[in-house]
Amino acid sequence: MAIASPSLRPLHKSLSPKHPCFSHNLRFRPSLHFSSQPFRFTVRASSAVALEPDLSTQQCQPEETDLFSCPVCYEPLIRKGPPGLNLEAIYRSGFKCKKCNKSYSSKDVYLDLTVTAGLRDYNEVQPASTELFRSPFVSFLYERGWRQSFNQSGFPGPDEEFRMAQEYFKPAEGGILVDVSCGSGLFSRKFAKSGAYSGVIALDFSENMLRQCSDFIKQDTSILDRNIALVRADVSRLPFSSGSIDAVHAGAAVHCWPSASNAIAEISRILRSGGIFVGSTFLRYTSSTPWILRPLRERILQNYNYLTEEEIEDVCTSCGLTNYTKMVQRSFIMFSAQKP
Predict the structure, then answer these.
(1) Sign of the CA dihedral 131, 134, 136, 139?
(2) CA distance 276 to 197
(3) Cβ-contact 62, 56 below 8 angstroms
(4) What percent of the chain clears pLDDT 90, i.e. is strictly above it?
């Protein structure tokens, strides 16, 4: 199995010993006023996450954050509420863009950071492959039979796929991981339970997938207080500052994106220098597929954006990612690339 380059340096270590106000075991108190000075959360390419505390006090205060950004203008959002990335803290926080004067909140179980968040009259119809996964029925079935059927195409199964992804992500341990197109949070929960990351953000466009993710988290007391947040966002308009994320995972997702190139360009934008992107998907065909069968597979699979091995590598490279590696098994591919 191909793994990420061993020459990369480990990033952030646990924040808990040095910064108890960002501990994954912390329960937050209902303090909902703005701090007069920013308590800024900054992801850096170093061995720790730097916190710049309020000058007037060393106590944990409501913060301004530069992790979440406005999906319209990408300006960092001002946060009002308790700090942290766990479900309780995010739910009790409000976010606002100073530049756009647009507000975002967690009125549901997730924080909605889409461009259309809060709109009353405008309705946007998405491609069929996107709308399918917004269905309550499909969202309910995803971990109750749907995902298990992937084994027939060569997917090794969630446990093995998680182990493989963790090997690629070793240089990013201790940092922030975003699980894009997370679905019902199958891998988001595994990443959070591993304790290998200071924060995990489960991100999907489907409201119902995020609700399913929330239900699964509530059933597992071992991750209820972990630093895991649920965010609704468009993979082609990711609500994070440029260079702020250590790791991005996209499990069985690339074929569902309307534009893989736009999505991977966004992933490249938000990754810090040295950050890792790991994705898996179905291949349209492999190098061993007979030429006579390739047009037939293209016709059968035309409802999704299935790519070839060469196309995936090409788009990653064109989006500025390097150190591309892959593992292929029948129609399954897992690949990794790094932000230089």
Answers:
(1) positive
(2) 13
(3) no
(4) 62
Residue 52: what pLDDT?
A: 40
Per-residue pLDDT tens over the stretch 182-215: 999 999 999 999 999 999 999 999 999 999 999 9
116 φ, ψ to 5°? -90, 5
**Residues 171, 11: contact at Cβ < 8 Å?**
yes
Please report which residue ranges of the chain form alpha helices under DSSP H: 87-91, 128-132, 136-141, 158-168, 186-194, 207-218, 260-270, 294-300, 309-318
Identity (one letter) of the amino acid at 287?
Answer: S
Collapse the DSSP code of 156 into the 3-class scheme (helix H, G, I; strand E, B; otherwise coil) and give the result: coil
The residue ranking higher by pLDDT, 276 or 285, is: 276
Q: What value does the mean pLDDT take over residues 272-284?
A: 96
Amino acid at 142: Y
Contacts of residue 11, Cβ cutoff 8 Å, sequence gap at least 6:
45, 46, 47, 171, 172, 173, 174, 175, 246, 274
Encoding tokens for residue 57?
């006090």
Q: How far apart are the first and last CA of the chain?
A: 22
Q: What is the DSSP letter of 115?
A: T
How far apart CA 146 and CA 225 sit, in angstroms, is 28
**Nearest to 266, CA basis, from 229, 308, 316, 306:** 316
Q: How far, in Å, are 223, 284, 300, 333 from residue 293 at the CA level?
A: 46, 11, 11, 19
pLDDT number for residue 189: 97
Task: Say how many residues make up the chain.
Answer: 340
* CB 303, CB 129: distance < 8 Å: yes
**How many other β-carbons are positioned within 10 Å of the β-carbon of residue 174?**
19
**Pairwise CA distance, residues 1 & 53, whole Å:** 43
Q: Identity (one letter) of the amino acid at 98?
A: K
Q: pTM (2 decimals)? A: 0.78
